[in-house]
Design a protein that fits this description.
The structure holds two protein chains of two kinds. Chain A is mainly β. Helices cover about 10% and strands about 55% of the residues of chain A. In chain A, the strands form two sheets. A 16-stranded antiparallel barrel of chain A has the order 1-2-3-4-5-6-7-10-11-12-13-14-15-16-17-18. A two-stranded antiparallel ribbon of chain A has the order 8-9. By secondary structure, chain B is of the alpha/beta class.
Chain lengths: ~375, ~140
Amino acid sequence: MDKTNAIFILSIAFLLTPSAFANTPEFSGFARVVAGQTVDSDNTMDKYDNELSLRPDSIIGLQFDYEINPTLTATAQLTGKIDDSTRSGIEWLYLTYMPKPTLQIKVGKLRTSFFSYSDVLDVGYAYHWVKPPGEVYASFLFTNYDGINISYDAIHSASSTKVEGFYGHFNDSLEFEGNVFAPDVNNFSGAVISHEVNQFKFRASYAQADVKLTDPGYIALQQALRQSGNLEAAEKTKFDGLMQYYQLGVNYDSLDYFVRAEWIKLDHEFDIIATASTYYVSAGYIQNQFTYHLTYSNRDDDVQADFPSLVLPPTAEAQALNQIYLSSVQGVIENDQDSWQLGVRWDFKQNLAFKAELKHRNHKNPILKSRDASTMLFALEWVF
Amino acid sequence: MRLSSILILLIGFISQPVHAAFWLVMKQLDSAEPVQLNRQQIRQAYLGKPISIGKDLFCTPVSLEQGNSLRKQFNAQVIGLTEARLQSYWAHMRFSGRKKPPQEVATTQQLFSYLNTKQGSIGYVAAGTELPSGIVRIYPHP
């Protein structure tokens, strides 16, 4: 969200307040300290290496809720991370209008809700893992958007259904497999439907967006390929088109155990990245304050591209272009992988939990086989 | 047996009323029709779902404070979640901007006072508790 939008939302909130700060603002927050390292390997995994580190996932967040009137609330959520390569700052900033308890309209900077936990990825207290399965919850998906979200609850005598729709755009950087990109994401839209009956919860969502990469290096490569007459290569490396996400999820919660599963399909019009089909199945057993859990997750990529060789004159500039092109397309491989996570969560005190988790990731692509690794993670989770 | 028959039997089994250690109570409404909620509706209300109990009137659930033994029984019998799982659920709801946990009170007397001031609010007390005038039991149905 740019500063103009942020100032606009804050101004509206202030102007709509009959007497500024007549109601008491509510503050709440969350914090997590996550320590981890790889086990018996020199490979890195999820930004952890063979030295114990607090960096990638430790975070603190503060939320401010202010009730302007009984139907209108302003909310801001700020986060700060130890890891300076990931973004800190305003994660949420929006107004909520609730004309009746079954209808909720949010406008502003919002978190995306692709997956069951994508809107609370920073709030470790809200889930049982230290890290949700990366095969599914990859950071490739942008976490925020500027726009509108409308949700409606339909309540039946023995069940309930929630329908949610959203629309907006995203113009910020995002990280994917260690690289930072700057895409323009427009016409981001989608819907989520969830249905709860007894202890079961079913969820299905669809989202799509027009995505265009705007990084200077990528633009220069596209221009050079077109100017040199390599139009097919330019078309094959194009990153400008429709992206679609499909999600299905099911949860079963009982007093002493739970089962969760989620399946995601990412589809798009590009050849330069793989399409992916991913899922996880997670089960947990609860005994007093302890939750023991086991998760299997899987990612199955599909690469369709057959990248052409460049036709270039024998000049130094042309050879440099060829090198850049080859390094781009050689990275387009099927990153098929699966992983096992075994963990325990100990809710030792009100609003405090300690977690430990061992994870092993196995790459199926022979080229990536040497990247197999395990991590051991510990987390202290706090909400206040 | 057809799949639909199995599902109906399964849902029927899960929805069986249990012997409740609590009564769900509220301030008597002016309307002639008594409020009747089933266990599933009570569960939904205590998970923040908007449960209608009259024209333009929705339930406002009230809980006893964490650590209270009746609250533990209520969580186990009605919501079907441990206290830790429930707090985890509310962290998800609060920090995704969806809803907030029920108002909490320390004692049954504070609960009765709250029910008298907030129309549509519901709360639970130990089964057999003597109810003050104007407070009525809505589950299990008298």
